[in-house]
Amino acid sequence: MTDRTVLHVAGGAPYDVVVGSGLLGELPGMLGEGVRRVAVIHPRALAATGEAIRADLSAQGYDAHGIEIPDGEEAKLAPVASFCWQVLGQTGFTRSDAVVTVGGGSTTDMGGFVAATWLRGVKVIHLPTTLLAMVDAAVGGKTGMNTTEGKNLVGAFHEPAGVLCDLATLESLPRNELISGLAEVVKCGFIADPAILDLVESDPVAAIEPDSAVLRELIERALRVKIDVVVDDLKETGGAGGHPGREMLNYGHTLGHAIERAERYNFRHGAAVAIGMTFVSELARLAGRLDEATAERHRTVLELVGLPTTYRGAEWGQLLEAMKVDKKTRGDQLRFVVLDGLARPSILTAPDPALLTAAYAEITPDPR
Ligand SMILES: NC(=O)c1ccc[n+]([C@@H]2O[C@H](COP(=O)([O-])OP(=O)(O)OC[C@H]3O[C@@H](n4cnc5c(N)ncnc54)[C@H](O)[C@@H]3O)[C@@H](O)[C@H]2O)c1
Ligand SMILES: O=C(O)C(=O)C[C@@H](O)[C@H](O)[C@H](O)COP(=O)(O)O
Ligand SMILES: [Zn+2]
């Protein structure tokens, strides 16, 4: 085992996020006393890993069951949750049993939702295997399922009992998935910890090497940002004194989620968020809230690691319709997380439609 870092998430149900390599041995300790049955939920791509974890738990005396779900966003659909509930029901899962998720953000979102809803809530431990899930999806208890009308429209807040970020799992992760995860890391740089941006800018190559010290530091910094935010405002009800609270983690997501939906989810979450962040940086600049240099820095840092900053897919009207169901919307007023400066997130409510189309034109080389 390499050196491990333990980050504590305080709150009503405190838990640890452990970062290191070869962490599987820590799973029984995290499961705690009294757990007899364990459901290991994993995507198809991680069938071998999921089975190895199930077999290991079984060898240690647990009644362990594997549940295979689809890869990517196809997992975040009601029939998949229904299938998982059926397995839990048939294996006699009780409130003292536990769900373990092994996978990326789509697996932690779906498995977390199943754990939140089965018997109105059972223990869940996340073993994130993508960069994005390690720094973001596995921590903070937000779960999300898609419906025909949009992204993450169904879900619950259900905190894990622990998170094990085994860095060795990143070795098999396709490069474009690693890059996608960096979008959420860069997001943390813009909203709260600019040292993240300095690190990426000074060594963009190391930032996308799974075993580099730079990536390790980026992971831990991004995790600290996420943990600080969710400890203050777990259920996204808002921060003190008009501060956006947890909504700040939605930076770039208003347009990002609309793009994912318009592209029928054949578009990586991180890539969509990268475009969404570039869009809101332009929106904030045009609204007179963000300086030109910080807006431009979005393009440079995202492009340095191979993330997109322009979009030429769906028509603006279609994206606007999709944004209306964003969870930050109140009535018919769209609300965007913007920056008033570096690491100064705030909310822009009901911007002038002309400003929105002007910001969209800035990221659309050939507008429709
Ligand atoms: N709940 C939250 O707070 C939160 C935060 C951020 C993102 N999300 C959600 O997370 C999802 C995106 O997560 P993601 O980017 O991790 O994508 P993902 O879960 O779809 O995983 C991407 C692909 O990589 C495969 N994979 C996973 N780990 C692997 C590994 N170690 N080696 C090889 N292949 C591997 C998966 O099977 C999948 O095909 C989105 O649905 C997004 O909405 C949720
Ligand atoms: O943890 C949060 O809060 C976030 O907003 C993190 C986002 O990166 C993540 O994609 C989240 O799932 C989006 O939440 P949603 O409320 O817009 O569905
Ligand atoms: Zn996200």
UniProtKB/TrEMBL annotation:
<dbReference type="Pfam" id="PF24621">
    <property type="entry name" value="DHQS_C"/>
</dbReference>
<dbReference type="Pfam" id="PF01761">
    <property type="entry name" value="DHQ_synthase"/>
</dbReference>
<dbReference type="InterPro" id="IPR030963">
    <property type="entry name" value="DHQ_synth_fam"/>
</dbReference>
<dbReference type="InterPro" id="IPR030960">
    <property type="entry name" value="DHQS/DOIS_N"/>
</dbReference>
<keyword id="KW-0963">Cytoplasm</keyword>
<keyword id="KW-0479">Metal-binding</keyword>
<feature type="binding site">
    <location>
        <begin position="71"/>
        <end position="76"/>
    </location>
    <ligand>
        <name>NAD(+)</name>
    </ligand>
</feature>
<dbReference type="GO" id="GO:0005737">
    <property type="term" value="C:cytoplasm"/>
</dbReference>
<dbReference type="GO" id="GO:0009423">
    <property type="term" value="P:chorismate biosynthetic process"/>
</dbReference>
<feature type="binding site">
    <location>
        <position position="184"/>
    </location>
    <ligand>
        <name>Zn(2+)</name>
    </ligand>
</feature>
<keyword id="KW-0456">Lyase</keyword>
<feature type="domain" description="3-dehydroquinate synthase C-terminal">
    <location>
        <begin position="181"/>
        <end position="329"/>
    </location>
</feature>
<feature type="domain" description="3-dehydroquinate synthase N-terminal">
    <location>
        <begin position="67"/>
        <end position="179"/>
    </location>
</feature>
<keyword id="KW-0170">Cobalt</keyword>
<dbReference type="InterPro" id="IPR016037">
    <property type="entry name" value="DHQ_synth_AroB"/>
</dbReference>
<dbReference type="GO" id="GO:0008652">
    <property type="term" value="P:amino acid biosynthetic process"/>
</dbReference>
<dbReference type="InterPro" id="IPR050071">
    <property type="entry name" value="Dehydroquinate_synthase"/>
</dbReference>
<feature type="binding site">
    <location>
        <position position="253"/>
    </location>
    <ligand>
        <name>Zn(2+)</name>
    </ligand>
</feature>
<dbReference type="GO" id="GO:0000166">
    <property type="term" value="F:nucleotide binding"/>
</dbReference>
<feature type="binding site">
    <location>
        <position position="142"/>
    </location>
    <ligand>
        <name>NAD(+)</name>
    </ligand>
</feature>
<comment type="similarity">
    <text>Belongs to the sugar phosphate cyclases superfamily. Dehydroquinate synthase family.</text>
</comment>
<keyword id="KW-0862">Zinc</keyword>
<feature type="binding site">
    <location>
        <position position="269"/>
    </location>
    <ligand>
        <name>Zn(2+)</name>
    </ligand>
</feature>
<keyword id="KW-0520">NAD</keyword>
<comment type="pathway">
    <text>Metabolic intermediate biosynthesis; chorismate biosynthesis; chorismate from D-erythrose 4-phosphate and phosphoenolpyruvate: step 2/7.</text>
</comment>
<dbReference type="InterPro" id="IPR056179">
    <property type="entry name" value="DHQS_C"/>
</dbReference>
<feature type="binding site">
    <location>
        <begin position="129"/>
        <end position="130"/>
    </location>
    <ligand>
        <name>NAD(+)</name>
    </ligand>
</feature>
<dbReference type="GO" id="GO:0046872">
    <property type="term" value="F:metal ion binding"/>
</dbReference>
<keyword id="KW-0547">Nucleotide-binding</keyword>
<feature type="binding site">
    <location>
        <position position="151"/>
    </location>
    <ligand>
        <name>NAD(+)</name>
    </ligand>
</feature>
<keyword id="KW-0028">Amino-acid biosynthesis</keyword>
<comment type="function">
    <text>Catalyzes the conversion of 3-deoxy-D-arabino-heptulosonate 7-phosphate (DAHP) to dehydroquinate (DHQ).</text>
</comment>
<dbReference type="GO" id="GO:0003856">
    <property type="term" value="F:3-dehydroquinate synthase activity"/>
</dbReference>
<protein>
    <recommendedName>
        <fullName>3-dehydroquinate synthase</fullName>
        <ecNumber>4.2.3.4</ecNumber>
    </recommendedName>
</protein>
<keyword id="KW-0057">Aromatic amino acid biosynthesis</keyword>
<dbReference type="GO" id="GO:0009073">
    <property type="term" value="P:aromatic amino acid family biosynthetic process"/>
</dbReference>
